[in-house]
Amino acid sequence: MKITHCVFLISIFILSACPVHSYEGTIEHLQVTSNKLSIAESSANREVSVYLPDGYESSSKRYPVLYLLHGGWWMGLDNTVFLGKGYNGHLIEANAPKISDNLIRKGNIKPMIIVIPHISTKKPPSAPIYFPMVSDYLTKEIIPLIDRKYRTISSRKGRAISGHSDGADGAVFVAVSHPDLFSSVGAYAGVGLQIQGIDAKELLDSYDKKKHPLNFWVYVGQNDQYGNLSPTRKFITLLESDNILHTYIEDIGDHNSMIAQRLEESMVFFSEKMTMD
After folding, report:
1. Which of 52, 142, 162, 267 is the most buried (most CB within 10 A)?
2. CATH code linked to domain 25-273
3. Whole-number Cα distances in Å, 42 to 33, 36, 37, 73, 123
4. pLDDT < 70 stretches in the chain
């Protein structure tokens, strides 16, 4: 952390000045062996990256958590997509820790923990089979682990889940399947559940909207090269017909071009919806 570094410099160079506090969080990488994903491949070892906001180590308070799912589940992509690596030259700016640091510094969001799990599998089954496996992986293995290891707000009001592409569809599937665990859900360039072989209407009809209301944040680009525009519009129609709270953004972007900006905007949305209690 920069504060510790600053104190060390002062002890040696009396005239050195402390740099301006830059609100830089830290990133921890956990190694997880999943029983829930082992059906898809024999060795289901996964890395889970955890962003801790600046001040976490020096405080005793609890923090809300955003679970952020990368896309390309059938392309072998991993959690580093949202850590500044991107993929094939795309999403480099969609660096979740850096975006969070900047938003916290500006006072636009409350500090939150961000969990970025590796989801892809080497032996991909079809989505109707794999999505429930991912749901179990997140809700029965990852969330309990994160709540044990870190000072989280472990109620649904302290959790949001979001993702890009396959991760967007996965986030919607997990949140709607477990609305008792999440208060908000986001989808960037996804919601092609019908394309994935999952009935979106049946999924939305399956949860108690009064007992566990979900806040949706949905984005799609009109030039999405993977055909997500039409199914996303149909998904929004379903939300509207059921009077489900949602924010919808549609622009001229493609599958990747606006994700960094939309990730930033959605993080402000999640921060407003999640509790700090």
Report:
1. 162
2. 3.40.50.1820
3. 11, 11, 9, 17, 9
4. 1-23, 40-43, 124, 277
- What digits encode the pLDDT tens for the residues 115-174? 999 998 877 678 888 899 999 999 999 999 999 999 999 999 999 999 999 999 999 999
Phi, psi at 47, each rounded to 5°: -95, 140
Q: How far is CA 64 from CA 85, 95, 199, in A?
A: 25, 19, 30
- Compute the distance between CA of residue 164 and CA of residue 95 in angstroms, rounded to an integer: 13
pLDDT score of 42: 56
Other C-beta atoms closer than 10 Å to the C-beta of 245 total 13
* Residue 151 phi, psi dihedral angles, 5° rounding: -85, 85
CA distance 229 to 135: 25
Q: Is 2 exposed, middle or buried (0-12, 13-18, 19+ CB in 10 A)?
A: middle
Instruction: Return d(Cα 49, Cα 97) in angstroms, integer.
Output: 10
User: What does the longest C-alpha to C-alpha distance in the chain come to?
Assistant: 67
Q: Among all chains, which residue has been given the structure tokens 């990488």?
A: 29
Which residue ranges make up each domain of the chain? 25-273
Neighbours of 104 (CB within 10 A): 21
Neighbours of 99 (CB within 10 A): 19
Whole-number Cα distances in Å, 34 to 37, 40, 57, 85? 6, 11, 28, 24
The dihedral sign for the CA sequence 130, 93, 184, 169:
negative
